[in-house]
Request: fold
Amino acid sequence: MSSTSSRQINLKTQIEKLKRQDMFFWFVGLITLAFALLTLLSLIADMAMTGWPRISQSFFFSFPSRFPDKAGIYSAWVGSFCVVLVTSLMAIPLGIASGVYLEEYAKKNIWTKLIELNILNLAGIPSITYGLMALGFFVYRMHLGQSILTAGMTLGLLVLPIIIVTTREAIRTIPSHIREASYSLGATKWQTIHNHILPYSSGGIMTGVVIALSRAIGETAPLITVGALTFIAFLPSSPMDPYTVLPIQMFNWVSRPQEEFHINAAAAGLVLLTMTLFLNGTAIYIRYLFRKKYKW
Reply:
């Protein structure tokens, strides 16, 4: 009895010790999260208080100027929209098709594993690498110049691995009995994918697409590499025209010594942050709608 009771006491002591450790790590994690959130909120609040007085209709529809009170982001947000549009047209169809092929059609062999490994690696390499590659291939080899088309294709390559990975992960969440039920009714593989797999996984796919585009809209390094302008006082009329985007316009204003230009940069940053949060909120809402519509 004494040995049994001593073991029970030791077990109780170990359980209490584990509980204290769990509580300690929970407290440390909570403090770390709170510190990170407070730091982020303080930075956002400081930027909002600095830039909000500059937000106006004229700020949205005025071209950059050497006079800070007359400078605006008209060419910058139009350029961002055009670049993201080209990125979407390139990356979304190719990324979804590649993800479907790798998950549903490709044979599971060493070549497929090698391709999957490279896609995962491409999703994590620095964005400047894509800019250097695009400079050598799109600008010098294909002679596309420093244009919206070059920028959109560069960012398309940047977000393509993200779309492929999220597409495959969304397809993997589909239960196998949906495929089996479709095949049992005589459907072909493509009919099963088109009528069942893609509709049920569309919420996850669209979430990945929107998050990928929200990353593309805030990229700066690859666009500087392929020749985005820091000052442009006209709107592009074709995909081969020069361009600028919001992050580069912000960079230009921050590098100026005048405090008024820094206020303009804070206002542009507030607009860019709002666009990014809107895209992420759209992704969450799309995922909610599709999960509500397609249930299994």
Observations:
- The mean pLDDT is 84.
- The domain at 57-293 is CATH 1.10.3720.10 (MetI-like fold).
- Residues 2-51 form the longest helix (50 residues).
